[in-house]
Amino acid sequence: MPSFASELRRQLAARLAAGSPGGSPVRREELAGLVDAAGNFDNSGVTFRTSSAAVARSVVRLWRSEFGLEPHLDASGPDPFGRARYAVRVEGNRAIQAAEELRIERERVPRESGGRPGLSAAAYLRGAFQGAGSVTPPGYRRGHHLEFVHESEEFVKRLASLSRAPLKVVRRRGRWVAYVKGADGVTTLLAQMGLHDAVLEYEAQAVLGEAKANANRVTNFDAANAARTATAAARQQEVLRSLDPGRLPEALGEMLALRLEHPDASLAELAELGGITKSAANHRLRRLAAMASAEAG
pLDDT of 223-268, one tens digit each? Predict the structure, then answer.
């Protein structure tokens, strides 16, 4: 079963395939994000690598629609996690020129956004997530986390500047990471990328989690009350056993017998058993407790 992050990459690739026609700046900015995230440039062209067949097909379509190139798609053996790997390769002078045009598109994104994350930023982030992003699923027990991992510090800092959610940039195991923690930060970035179904899943899990937490609080509260009640009843039994029924008035003697015979009965139940009002039962128990305390003192 594919991971949650893999499913989101598939959704983004499908969205791009069904999106605007060729020549769209948004499509080029998304391709720029893809290539910057997982592309390798050399003197004769560009190779894009991914473990997602859907993303690989999307990159092939983008090279064709945006630049008229005919990419070469290769599938290689499984990676250390058992996943197939795909390589999309474009070569020649036109490919090198296309790579330069993508660089211009990428550098134009912050300027067109006026320094603020906008439509162009969202397209670039979508591409970057497909190439270098990952995210924990809704309701993940260790908390929510979305990150981009890359060897280039410049790349991850660019993502941090484009994101509506504040991304922290750190160095980890020889690579650079831009990440956000918490459901609010994760859903903000997912919404910016247009993954609204994923946002709804997070919100549904949050509601479910809150309901479970409330149920647990009620259960714990009831359990604590029951424990306190049981402790109080046991103490009351111990105190009342010190009284001599033969030395008590008849009404009090009857109430003492009822309480000792029914240690777990509520005040209302004792009153019903004794054929008296709840107030009268309470009054008699208080008198018994006072008498037992006086004798103990």
Answer: 666 556 556 566 666 667 777 777 888 888 888 788 778 877 777 8
Q: What are the residue ranges of CATH 1.10.10 in the chain?
A: 210-296
Answer whether 0.70 is exceeded by the pTM.
no
Stated as kind and residue range, the H or E segment containing 276 is none
Q: DSSP H helical segments within the chain, as ranges?
A: 4-17, 25-38, 53-67, 93-112, 119-132, 153-162, 183-192, 196-240, 250-261, 267-274, 278-296
- CATH for 210-296 is 1.10.10
Cα-Cα end-to-end distance for the chain: 72
* Domain covering 4-194 assigned CATH 3.40.430.10 in the classification: no
d(CA 274, CA 256): 11
Nearest to 144 by CA among 110, 176, 181, 109: 181
Q: How many CB atoms lie within 10 A of CB 179?
A: 22
Stretch(es) of the chain classified as CATH 3.10.28.10: 4-194
Angle at 111 between CA 106 and CA 112, to 5 degrees: 90
Neighbour order of strands in the sheet with 85-91: 39-42, 45-50, 85-91, 72-76
pLDDT at 295 over 90: no
- Would you state the pLDDT for residue 236? 65
